[in-house]
Structure prediction request, 115 residues.
Amino acid sequence: RRYYKETDGLKLDFGIYMKALESACDIEAELVGKPAKVFFQSALADMGVEPHQAIMIGDDLVNDVGGAQQCGMKAVQVRTGKYRPSDEKHPTVKADGYVNNLAEAVDRNLKHLDD
Prediction:
């Protein structure tokens, strides 16, 4: 991640520091967090769930949505937090759906179970 959101604005995340260390040490770090495929595969395995049985709900288009989709999961972007209206026009990552908040995402999924 490059940044994260706090109440007083966006803050630099560890990713920028990791890149600096990689450059200084002339090595490539192994990413084990989002959007790494192994991150999502590990979470799914821990829950005993197949990718087609899971939905990722997140505010970060590339790390949450894109990472989950690389593993075969559906992914919904929440229009809060890191979300930006331009995310909906991203050239390579397209969410499977958008919701205004987490409660809406939960309600939609529960309603779908009743269908």
In short: The longest strand covers residues 74-78. Residues 102-114 form the longest helix (13 residues). The beta strands are 3-6, 9-12, 55-58, 74-78, 97-99. The mean pLDDT is 91.
